[in-house]
Amino acid sequence: MPDTPTLCTIGYEGATxxxxxxxxxxxxxxxxxDVRALASSRRPGFAKTALTANLASVGIDYxxxxxxxxxxxxxxxxxxxxxxxxxxxxxEHMDEDVAREELARLATIVRGDRKVCLLCFEADPMHCxxxxxxxxxxxxxxxxxxxxxxxxxxxx
Length: 156
Fold this sequence. Notes:
The structure is a single chain. By secondary structure, the chain is of the alpha/beta class. It has one domain: Cobalt-precorrin-4 Transmethylase, domain 1, CATH 3.40.1010. Helix content is about 40%, strand content about 15%. The chain has a five-stranded parallel sheet, sandwiched between helices. Helix 3 packs antiparallel against helix 4. The radius of gyration is 15 Å and the shape is globular.
């Protein structure tokens, strides 16, 4: 039986670009899968174009699977701290065709030979929809999950 693939997750909340890239590089990540509905950010270096370039500078590929992102009303609930409401909204979204198709695509990618990491904003995976993406993925491809955390340079 083949080894269970490792799937990492990471949030960039509170991270510098340097500490974020170091966490990915140290974990051996080869492909970052962005599961934000909107691959934009007010934080310099974390919007799609800049993020892609930053990742390429350390040899990591980028893929955006927007269909696995949280709908706008779910993001609003999360910002307000209504995590149960965000969960309900996101799980309903996961029943939509686009989410099911992108989840199947993610399963194929994770079965491959590259180490994959899911990206969203929240540093705490327990308050982020990426934990529900992982839970939905596990029946398709069992994974060993490792949550990565970027350490700011001043903490070293």
